[in-house]
Structure formats: C-alpha cells, structure tokens
Write a structure and sequence with these properties.
The complex is a heterodimer. Chain A is an alpha/beta fold. Chain A has helices spanning 10-20, 36-44, 60-71, 83-98, 125-129, 147-164, 174-178, 194-200, 224-244, 264-279, 297-304, 320-328, 347-358, and strands at residues 4-9, 25-28, 53-56, 77-81, 103-109, 140-142, 167-173, 180-185, 216-217, 248-251, 258-261, 284-289, 291-293, 309-314, 333-338. In chain A, strand 4, helix 4 (83-98) and strand 5 form a beta-alpha-beta unit. Chain B is 36% helix and 16% strand. The chains are: A alpha/beta, B alpha/beta.
C-alpha cells in the first residue's frame, strides 16, 4: 500500500507510522499526554495485519524491559511514555545502551519535576542528552516540530538505532503529541523476515544455530580492563554519530542579526516571533536542532561569527542554552528565555525577551 | 597379568557402555559457584532437558542479577542478561516476538520475590508462555549473604545478624503459593536437588514446564528450594541437612498447581 494523507494528532501519527514502518513490537503503559499512541495501536489491531505485537505492560519499568528482551532478538521494538514514565525507564535505557541494543523510545514531555503537570514542557532535555540513566552513554535524540516529523522520525529513529546498535529517542512534547495536522503517512514496509533479521543482526540472541557461538546480550563485564575497552568502543561509536548524523533546520538565518535557537514546539512558536520581529525591521532567524544529540554545535559556532546575539528559547529553565553556549564559546552573547511548569510562551513574549535580553 | 595401565580404554568407552554423560550444551568453563551450591545441578538439568527436547537452537535463556548472573557462561545457548528483577519482562518481550522459541528465566529469591515481584506476578498473570526457574536459597548469595524476602523467621544473615524479626522485616514470602493462585499459571511446583531421587523428579517436572511453554499452556514456575552453604556459613553437607530440617517445613516440596 502506498502513502496516505491523513489529519492526525502527533501521538496518532507515531502509532500509524510504527505499523507502516514494519515495527515488530510496541510495549507501553498509559500516561498523559501520550496515551493515544497505545490507544491507536490497540484500536488498529496490527497483529492481525502486519503481525506487530502490541502489549500494555504493568509499568514503564516492565515496558522498557520488554523492549530490551525483544530488541535483544534483533526485532524492531519501541515504547513511549511521558516525563515521569520516562524517568522510570532510565534503568532499562542504560542497560540497552550498555548492551548495544537498538530500539526507539518516545517521550512526549510534560511539566515536572515530580508528578508535575500534564501540560507541555521541554524540561527533559538534560535527561535526554546528558545521560538520564547511569554510566557514560548517549541516545540518538530526534526532536520533531510537526506531526509530519512525528511520523517520519519513527522510520529515521529505527534506521539510526540499527545502524549504530544504539537506542534512539524521539523527544516530543505535549503540544506536538496532542495537536492535529496534515500528515503524509509512509507506504507499508513489510516486517523483516527471520532470515533478514539474522543477516542484519548477527549479534541477536534469537536461537543459537550450530554454526555459531552463543549470542549473549549483556551489559555486564567484571574485568575493568575489558570494561574500559567496551566503553572506549562506545565512545568511538558516539564520535562517529557526532560526525555523521547531525541534523538541523536553518530558517531565515542568512541575513539574520539575531538568532533564535529552539527545538520542537518552541521552534514553531519562534517562527511567528520572527514574523513579528521582521515586521518591525529586526532581522531574526531560527536555528532548529533536529538532533538534540548529536547537537549541531558546528553550525551554531558558525553563526556565532555572524550574528549579534542568540536567544535559546525553551519550555524549561535553561537547558539547551548550555549546549548553545558551549558551541558559541563566548563569541557572542547567548541568553535563555523560557516558561515553566506547562505554561507555553507567546510569540510576542519571545520577541519582547529578545529585545530585553539582547538589545 | 594385565595392569590397569595397559587397559585399552577404547575397548571400554563405547556407545553401548555409556550410562552417563555431561550434556553437550554444558561447556567446560569452570563454574564460579561455591561448593555445595545447588546452581550447578540445576544448570545441568536445564541443559539435559533442552537437549533431550531437541530445542537447543530454539531456546533463549534470561539470566538474572544475583549468583546466576553468569549462567550464560555455562550453557551454550543464546542468552539475554536482565536487569535486577526484570527477567520476566525481558522474557515476555522475547517470547511475544518469537513465538516459536522456548524461553525461560532463571532467578533467585531476591531477584524474583523482592525487586522483581511486580514483573513476576504480571508475567504469570498474563500467562506468558515461558518457564520461570526460581532458585530459592533464602538469602542474597552474590552480595554476601544478606536477608532476602524468603529468609526464614529467626534465620541469621548479614543484614539481620540477630535473626529475621517478623515485626521488623515481615514474613518469609511464599511467592510460589501466590503465583499458584493466578489464572495465568499452569504449573507451579517446588522441587529440590539435594538427593539423586530429588534430582530425577525435578528433571521430569522441568521437562513438563518446558513442554507447557511450547504447548501454549501459560506460565510454568519451577521453584528449587536450594542451599547456599557460603551464605548460610555451613559445609555443603551441613547445608543440605539444614535445608531438609529447617527450610522444607516453610517451603514444602511438591506441586502447588499442575494442570494437564
């Protein structure tokens, strides 16, 4: 079947894309504002069509460990949750990074800390790109700013996860998850056959054939000399990802005197703020990191030599701004503007913050 | 007169004379388990059953956190090593996506009955077609002999050095009795490997459990009431006797549930 144009919520788009991209399994636990992913999947009954397994787990902890189990057999497996639930998944995410298992995690962020609120937020940036769980590891982090990207990044996330044998995460927020937009859903990709999986994933624990040694999925290594080598191998992989997989969008940046740096829903609001600014003769552009890790540091550094100042616009107390400042390395003034706890800024507020903080 | 040195071994080592052999799935890696520990025998039983069923290429084991974390070093099948207590969730993910595979978890009492209680109960309640092998030695062995949920009343461990106090620590958890109540389980049984006859009986039960999992009958739980001579600070012989005398009364052997 071919592409299909639909009007969907971001969360629904994730579910439909998962079925169409040939995902083998989804394990999740309900939490607002992302429950439509599990609801849509169970309504669609993909087990009757593509053979995709969908299971509601007893907790986020169990769900991520079901993902671990399935991913360890070379299958395309995913989970989704929102901030408090993603905190619960951190143990499993760290184990998957340590065992080098590909998978896709979706975090539709809400305001925290703690139980917080069910309104949108971007306060899990640190958790996503700086670790989250224990140990030196990285997640490939994709930040969609449209319903279309919610769908597209399911495919991209799995592609990158399997290319590097590493968990990938879609870091969305309550706005992107809940809003409805036109989306072009991808054509149906059949799920991989057993022999395709064995060929693509020779490391997978899917039953030892006599011709090979046992495959063991583990993050454990008690010999520190070997464990150091494992870590060095991970770091080399992360360096390669940093070199090859940076993605960003530059909007009206060429003639800009000021740059807004924003991801996800904030980037959408920034586009309107730029309209307001330009109508008043202030040349403002938007740099939107699509991969939050690897962070587009090089392009941010490049613009640091061209603009008078940058404003990192985030629905948090100032998280990504640290990476912007690291990239800029003192060349121009970098300020942060944010709203907290589920409050979303208006375009006017963004423009006002720009003039107050950078003029 | 012929001496023993001159005996031609090839005249003796013949298939027709074979009465016992190590299962092929069990490799020659030296085991890290302590003398008198039950794990070695239980590992061997799994290897024998999997081999006799002809399922070596289709079996995936899930090892726990605890003494058996390195179970994957001894049996030459594919394995996934789970986070502490999460083995039943990991096994759920494996089995749901690989219905033709034979999937089992191997867990201790701390892993299964403390940190992993939720995963254990819910996997069993969903009737996952897996085998849960539960080695209950009433103590945390790997970390040096701390109190576990199944530690007996009055039993001394490094974190209840004056003996388990019910008022402080609650009661020994009879998790298998709980699991037997769930509609998702088809076999819940308590076995032991302290005598040759117990080993033979345990092996028959283990085979049934694995067969259940492939027949789609639901979750089978095989608890092995086991020794931990190091944790109990006893000799292997003492620990076997102590188990019979003190542990069996709290965790009596036999089937708690066995649906054909």
């Amino acid at each position: 079947m071919s592409e299909e144009i639909s009007l969907l919520k971001g969360n629904e788009a994730i579910a439909h894309a998962a079925i169409r991209y040939g995902v083998d399994g989804y394990f999740g636990y309900p939490i607002t504002p992302q429950s439509e992913i599990l609801e849509t999947l169970t309504l669609e009954r993909p087990w009757d069509t593509t053979g995709m397994v969908v299971l509601q787990a007893e907790s986020e902890v169990a769900a991520i460990n079901m993902v671990y189990g399935g991913a360890g057999t070379g299958k395309r497996v995913m989970t989704s949750s929102s901030s408090p639930g993603v905190s619960l998944k951190q143990e499993g995410i760290s184990y998957m990074a340590g065992a080098e298992l590909p998978c896709l995690i979706v975090n539709v962020m809400r305001g925290g800390p703690g139980l917080g609120t069910i309104q949108p937020s971007q306060a899990d940036y640190f958790q996503t790109v700086k670790g989250g769980g224990h140990g030196d590891y990285r997640l490939i982090a994709l930040a969609p700013s449209s319903v279309q990207e919610m769908a597209d990044f399911v495919g991209l996330g799995f592609e990158l996860a399997f290319k590097y044998r590493n968990p990938a995460i879609i870091l969305a927020d309550g706005i992107i998850g809940q809003m409805m937009e036109k989306v072009v859903l991808p054509p149906f990709h059949p799920r991989r056959t057993e022999s395709q999986i064995i060929e693509e994933c020779p490391w997978a624990a899917n039953g030892r054939k006599k011709s090979r040694k046992p495959n063991i999925i583990t993050s454990l290594e008690l010999d520190p000399a070997v464990m150091e080598q494992n870590n060095i191998r991970f770091q080399k992989k992360y360096e390669e990802i940093k070199k090859k997989e940076v993605r960003y969008e530059a909007y009206l940046c060429d003639d800009a005197d000021y740059l807004l740096v924003a991801f996800g829903s904030s980037a959408r609001i920034c586009q309107k703020a730029i309209e307001i600014a330009r109508a008043q003769g202030v040349k403002v552009g938007l740099l939107r990191p699509i991969t939050l890790w690897p962070f587009p540091s090089e392009i941010v550094a490049e613009y640091a030599g061209k603009v008078k100042g940058m404003l990192s616009v985030e629905l948090n107390a100032g998280q990504m701004v640290e990476d912007v400042r690291l990239a800029v390395n003192g060349k121009v003034k970098v300020e942060h503007f944010g709203r907290l706890g589920g409050i979303v800024f208006t375009p006017d507020e963004i423009f006002k913050a720009l003039t107050e903080k950078l003029f | 007169m012929e001496t023993i040195e001159k005996t031609d071994l090839s005249q003796i080592i013949k298939p027709e004379n074979l009465v016992y052999a190590k299962p092929e799935l069990m490799n020659d890696n030296p085991m890290h388990y302590c003398p008198g520990c039950s794990h070695g025998v239980i590992h061997k039983l799994i290897a024998e059953v999997v081999e006799e069923m002809g399922m070596a290429e289709k079996t995936i084991g899930v090892s726990p956190v605890g003494c058996a974390v390195f179970a994957y070093n001894y049996l030459d099948i594919d394995w996934e090593e789970a986070a502490h207590g999460r083995a039943p969730a990991v096994a759920t993910g494996i089995k749901r996506l690989n219905k033709d595979k034979m999937v089992f978890t191997y867990q201790g009492d701390g892993d299964l009955a403390a940190i992993g209680t939720a995963e254990t109960i819910h996997a069993a309640n969903r009737g996952e077609n897996i085998v849960i092998i539960f080695v209950n030695n009433a103590i945390y062995g790997m970390t040096g002999g701390q109190m576990s949920p199944t530690t007996l009343e009055g039993m001394k461990t490094s974190t209840c050095p004056h003996g388990r106090d019910i008022e402080l620590n609650g009661y020994p958890l009879k998790i298998s009795d709980l699991l037997a109540l769930l509609d998702g389980t088809c076999l819940v049984t308590r076995q032991s490997v302290h005598t040759p006859s117990a080993v033979k009986k345990a092996k028959r039960t283990l085979r049934k459990a694995f067969e259940n999992s492939m027949a789609g009958k639901g979750t089978s739980v095989v608890e092995f009431v086991s020794t931990c001579s190091s944790g109990w600070k006893q000799t292997p012989e003492q620990s076997n006797n102590w188990m019979v005398e003190h542990v069996f009364p709290s965790y009596p052997l036999g089937d708690l549930k066995n649906i054909d």
